[in-house]
Amino acid sequence: MKFLKKLYFYLRAIPKTLLFNFYYLPLNQALKLPLIVSHRVKIERLSGKIELVGQIRTGKIRIGFGKVQIADPARSRALWAVSPQGCITFHPKVKLGTGTKLDIRGHLEIGEGANFTGEATIVCNHKIQFGRNCLVSWQTLFMDTDQHSIVDQHHQRLNPDQPIQIGNDVWICAKSTILKGVTIGNNSIVSANANVTWAFPESDLILGGNPAKPISSLEGKKFVH
Fold first, then answer.
1. Among 177, 168, 167, which Cα is nearest to 208's?
2. Are 218 and 184 within 8 A, CB to CB?
3. Is the CB of residue 20 less than 8 Å from the CB of residue 35?
4. Neighbour count for residue 97 (Cβ, 10 Å)
5. 89-137 pLDDT tens trace
6. From the DSSP assignment, how many helices (H) and strands (E) are in the chain?
């Protein structure tokens, strides 16, 4: 029964999988179908570009599949909204789970082995970068922009977009928020409901609170997912 259910979802994924691969990729890459796209992905804007890094193999990028405990997978649709100037760079073995929402006008880069379990939202107007083996839990938010400009009397913008950089082996726990200008060092954990507004480039940190601050150290330890 489980096999038949899985087969059903992959058969329904065929139209959008073909659309994404042949729209975004050169023919020699598209024929290998590296992007597998669920039928539950709502296409808001199909533009911009996708870049693939590393060996091109079938199904190494999966978008809109899986489930999380707090979402009805039949109703939790992923959102794909990439503007003409937007660019997404995928390294191998990336999973964007059910309900993941992408609003991309800048450059989003997702490192090898990154796993977004579901219900994550990424708003990228400038640049957001995830390192290798990141684990991103549900109902998380990443924004490198305030979405609305604040200007002074000389019409100079006071709140420019700023990049976000997430290091390697970082675990972003449920319902946490990562705002513009944030850097998170390697082998770190952002605890549930944390609101990260400052850069923490040091490695091996556990961050928590609102606004987030270091609450413990992971030195000599490493989480596995």
1. 177
2. no
3. yes
4. 26
5. 999 999 999 999 999 999 999 999 999 998 999 999 999 999 999 999 9
6. 3, 22
Query: CB 22: neighbour CB atoms within 10 A?
Result: 15
What distances in angstroms separate CA 104 from CA 28, 86, 150, 155, 193, one per listed residue?
25, 5, 21, 26, 24
CA distance 143 to 141: 7
* Cβ-Cβ contacts under 8 Å for 94 (sequence gap 6 or more): 60, 61, 62, 110, 111, 112, 113, 114, 115
The pLDDT tens digits for 143-190 are 999 888 777 777 777 778 899 999 999 999 999 999 999 999 999 999
Q: CA-CA distances (angstroms) from residue 194 to 40, 117, 122, 188, 224?
A: 29, 18, 16, 13, 21
